Amino acid sequence: MKDIEGFLIDLDGVLYTGNRAIDGAPGAIKFLTENGYPFRCISNTTRKCRHSVSSHLLSLGFDIPEDFIFTPPLAAIAHMKNTGRTGYYLLTTGDVDRDFAEVENTNPDTKPDWVIIGDAGDKITYNSMNMAFRYLIGGAELLALENDRYWMAADGISLSAGPIVKALEYASGKTATVMGKPSLPFFNLALQDMHLLPEQVAMIGDDIITDIGGAYHAGIKGILVRTGKYRSESVDTAQIKPTRIIDSVSQIQDII
Ligand SMILES: [Mg+2]
Fold first, then answer.
1. Which of 33, 102, 134, 136 is deepest in the core (most CB within 10 A)?
2. Distance 177 CA to ligand 1 centre (A)
């Protein structure tokens, strides 16, 4: 793949799973840095703010600048600011709410402009879902930080935000705007930051739909890794096939 000049790299399932780095992944990042290949990390992680994602990576041995990391809250904040409407109800877990601290939340408890759903884990209750539903019926728009079906948690495969988003869409009759992968604006945010064109870039991910499918629609080559949530059946049934499949990101040197 001689024409590849830069990379977009997924985090969960590609560089790490839970609190464990994928074997050889820190070396792969070191290789890119030392050889002058630009890269950005684009993750659908919505449980951690950008700063915490960066700290987590550092603790696992990855030397990656914080501003190389793109997460859906950044896209959501840009989207809200573009519209000039910044009242929101946030259904997330972890410390991802810290990313939103820079947005002045107008009328959050009365009539928010947005219902924002991330991977909310235990924060998903009848009451929190019903609150979101009532705001949607009351006129709020639905923003999905991500719409993945599942992810590989440290203790096993786990529901992601997608099924929750679908439930709220079903109840309210509204359609969510997806902020994270596979949405095109999210890929473009990272591409523009690297000053590269789509055809110069390859996306490395473990999700055939959000990583590989999203990259395809953005004009970016897709390299699927057999780590994280990779399942061969999901490749067999996918309409969009990856450009390459490699065992793990540690093989990045072999494909350049
Ligand atoms: Mg992943």
1. 136
2. 20
